[in-house]
């Protein structure tokens, strides 16, 4: 039992704190308690500790009465950071579980879960700085008569009763920052901290939503009937009204005084979702994603922890938001791989959402037009209740989807004649057209027409993309850039030509084919600046341009009602991927992109350009739809013994030396075999080269661990992963372990 209040008195040795520190250590470390009063509940509190020759902020995960270390070697923690636990029991348990499941050091996992300022030990107080005029300056302006800015700031403060929030003032007039600092130094202005207010809801009356159709109503009733934990897979084509169902379920939870956590895969989707939440739900809404400053994230996180935020909308890391009054968890676009973190602490926010819902005993709903095979499998196994919205809501109609066989056609910047005609038709009708091409730059290849030389990256097994606007060759895998050579480095001829289309080239071709028609290109190159993506999406939405060009950024849930034609310039890109999930991803992408067409009252048309019009996946998808595709593909996965019919983990290693990854992975495999009990149900496959064997000058290889049953995989990983770091060759490579990898 943890000691309550004050220093525990009485029997035995003083208690020992087990502290998870932000270092890659397997275990929490033992410390003697810091001097001073104890928090009422120490577990979950931050504490400052000495670590080696530096200091760190750790989190108390347990209080013990003995340590394996001799008392003489125990160090004392330096100070408590919190008076109350920052992490409540549930969140700490969830994180502990996740760290164990994903085989990641607890201390670093905890640190990843916290917004930066809290991780660094900043007080867990939601405070906003204000400036207040000193009484002397309030009375008369003598002190500032010679300083116009200071006088201006004084007048401004007087106008709002002598004090105002610092951030507000600086936003109004940046020059006041310096003026104010000078006044502070003179003691004529004081900085005060006031508790932040969660955005109020009193002045908002939620707008009622449309009347639900029969399918929506049924889904809603099914979810509202849940008492405690229940998992739902809400499968509905784009525009079928899934969001309406979330909103009405959420409204019920809010009315009962509960909090709602909503996860979306992309920052880009947050603003449009946010607007709808604010319009339709009462209660304050906070947003949590990596595009925000650390301070803003900490503020939102704490508002959730204090129970002041009723709705929390965020990207994957928001799954680690405290929910003292939990009511509902929603995961939108649950199939999207961005919901999984793919470096450092690798976790699936979707899977953790289901886990948390179970721990918190609340319903969770996973929504998608194209559910992941994992979730479909869970629905078949009755672990999730499968709800379907087969029709588009309101007046919108399903689009017609057709293949355009481009095998023997001339392409202009990637565009075939039938596609060109279709674009013309839709433009003439005054609609928007979306052209989708998942390749930024001008051309993916620069080739010498005389000898066949191709510009490649010297650090990766990849070709360099030609960016014409900057006259540059660029590697999209390592960032290496080079000038475009004047002549072929191989044969000296000056006949270098771009091959294949990129978004820049598409833009150029469209400008020639449809002169005078406004264009908007949305890809990583045009959205680098903070806020640029939001601005461009808003412009697309307003209809500023009739032609929209986009990479996969534009494929996701954006609602663009004026788009009636969607074209995929090159479907084949995804047909033959090395990753066993490539086909699933392509099918999802095609259906998602198609979902951008005709969401308003105009019927939509979708054209897919391909050189493989007979490909079985495309045929099934087009003739029988995503559910039939998924059915067929699940059967293939089962036959191949792949997820969701097996659990995988991937041990990756890379090094500048070609042999090193193999030496390490071989010894890892050998060590693994020695740890395998009889009938352990686990197979070790490899090592094999990674799909891109060389990247950023490093050679990469991987070892796959496969088990029919998740529990066998977990048991094996527990026995195996702890020893990997001390294996022969471990120090010669960079290695990482990925449990339930979403990318091979
Ligand atoms: P999804 O989340 O499945 O893409 P949305 O909930 O965003 O679908 O709905 C798509 C559009 O249809 C939205 O503009 C929404 O307001 C509208 N809509 C949803 N349900 C209904 C309904 N029952 N009646 C009329 N319009 C609806
Ligand atoms: Zn050449
Ligand atoms: Zn490269």
How would you explain this protein's 3D organization?
The protein has 20 helices and 31 strands. The strands form seven sheets. Strands 12-13-11-14-15-10-16 form a seven-stranded parallel sheet, sandwiched between helices. Strands 5-2-1-4-3-6 form a six-stranded mixed sheet. A six-stranded parallel sheet has the order 17-27-26-18-25-24, sandwiched between helices. The protein folds into six domains: 18-120, 3-Layer(aba) Sandwich (GIY-YIG endonuclease); 127-195, no CATH class; 214-389, 3-Layer(aba) Sandwich (Rossmann fold), CATH 3.40.50.300; 400-442 and 500-633, Rossmann fold; 445-495, no CATH class; 647-739, 2-Layer Sandwich (Alpha-Beta Plaits). With 744 residues, the chain is an alpha/beta fold. Bound molecules: adenosine-5'-diphosphate (ADP) and zinc ion (2 copies). The site of one zinc ion has 8 residues, from loops.
Specify the structural class.
alpha/beta
Largest sheet: 7 strands, parallel
Report low-confidence residues grouped into runs of 5 or more. Answer: 1-11
Radius of gyration: 29 Å
Helical fraction equals 25-40%
Morphology: globular
By CATH, the topology of the largest domain is Rossmann fold
Count of individual helical segments:
20
Total domains? 6
What ligand species are in this complex?
Answer: adenosine-5'-diphosphate, zinc ion
Q: Which CATH-level-2 architecture of the largest domain? A: 3-Layer(aba) Sandwich
Number of strands: 31
Terminal Cα span:
45 Å
Overall pLDDT: 90
Give the C-level CATH assignment of the largest domain: Alpha Beta
The share of residues in extended strands comes to 15-25%
The largest beta-sheet arranges its strands as: 12-13-11-14-15-10-16
Catalytic activity: ATP + H2O = ADP + phosphate + H(+); Couples ATP hydrolysis with the unwinding of duplex DNA by translocating in the 3'-5' direction
EC number: 5.6.2.4
Domain Helicase ATP-binding: 223-389
Binding site for Zn(2+) 1: 448, 451, 488, 491
